[in-house]
Amino acid sequence: MSQTAPIRSHRKPRRSASKMALRAGVAGGVFSTIAVAGAAAPANAEPVTETTLEMPTLGSLDADLASAVSASAEASQQEALDQSLAAQENAALKKAAADARKAKAEADRKAEAERAEKARAEARERASRTATRTTLSAKSSSSDSVGSSSSSSQVATGSAAAIVAFARAQVGDAYVMGSTGPNSWDCSGLVQAAYAQAGIDLPRVSSAQSSMGTSVSLSNLQPGDILYWGSRSGSYHVAIYVGGGKYVGAQNPSTGVVERSLDWDMPSGAVRIL
Q1: Mean pLDDT of the region 220-228
Q2: Cα(8)–Cα(67) distance, integer angstroms
Q3: Among 27, 140, 164, 230, which residue has the fewest nearby CB atoms (within 10 Å)?
Q4: Which long-range contacts (CB under 8 A, 24 or more apart) does 152-161 make?
């Protein structure tokens, strides 16, 4: 090697002052940021992860708003419908209650009217019965006084006695429509059987029996005369006069064969066959 050859230097080439200053500033800023972050964060804090928030778009906001408005409108309509139905139900209940009260009042009024009319009818019937009994009693008294000087003087004799005795013997027997004895009778069956005791054959029905013989006044009755109710040729009931202002007849299913005074049920007329 030549002693005069130049010796290569091992030093790195110097950087320019401006580059060194720039690097120092950047490094200092980075270290400062790290230091501040390290001082602010707790010792055991987890590493911070980045989260990306997705902002809604304008179109989705419009759809959500429209849906909310529609739901609100539907809710308002449903509430209005519910209120309307409730009002209708209340009105129907009030009307039904009013109709029920009106119907009850009308029924009560009719029932009261019917009770009043029934009471008036019963009063009229009682008055009519009283008047009829008074009239019949007067007629009976007149009949007894004209027909005989006293009731005891009307004693049946001969055929009349047989008829009267048979009729009285059946008192207490039952009344049965169409029956001719021996233990139950209807009115004409009893009269027919009684007259058979005297050997007299009478028709079976009352209208034909009252058409027999001679018509006599109720004020001139004799034992054995046939009493009738209704018209003479169209009578609906017959009995036998037994004297003393009384008669024996098969009255009805409730009473059977009874002996009653004329004023209990005054006959329409009488016929004499004996």
Answers
A1: 97
A2: 85
A3: 27
A4: 152/244, 154/222, 154/223, 154/243, 154/244, 155/223, 155/243, 156/223, 156/224, 156/242, 156/243, 158/274, 159/198, 159/199, 159/200, 159/224, 159/274, 160/198, 160/222, 160/223, 160/224, 160/274, 161/223
Q: Provide the pLDDT for residue 153.
A: 52
From residue 133, how far is each of 90, 136, 146, 161, 194 by CA, in Å? 64, 5, 20, 29, 29
The token pair that represents 147 in the structure block: 């027909």
Give the span between the Cα atoms of 266 and 274, in whole angstroms: 22
| Residue carrying the six token digits 């230097």 | 9
Helices (H) and strands (E) in the chain, counts: 5, 8
Structure-block tokens of residue 199: 């050997």
| 270 bridge partner residues | 216, 227
Name the residue with tokens 């009267």. 164
Residue 111, pLDDT above cutoff 70: yes
Q: In the structure encoding, which two tokens stand for residue 156, read together?
A: 């049946």
Domains of the chain: 148-272 (3.90.1720.10)
Q: What is the pLDDT of residue 245?
A: 95
- Radius of gyration of the chain, Cα coordinates, nearest whole angstrom: 66
- Give the least confident one: 9-23, 176-190, 255-269: 9-23
Determine the residue type at 197: Q
What residues contact 240, with CB distance under 8 A and at least 6 apart?
Answer: 163, 164, 167, 190, 191, 194, 224, 225, 226, 227, 247, 248, 249
Identify the weakest region by mean pLDDT among 9-23, 27-41, 99-113, 250-264: 27-41
Place of tokens 């009770």: 115
Q: Is the per-residue pLDDT at 148 higher than 50?
A: no
CA–CA distance, 87 with 81 (Å, rounded to integer): 10
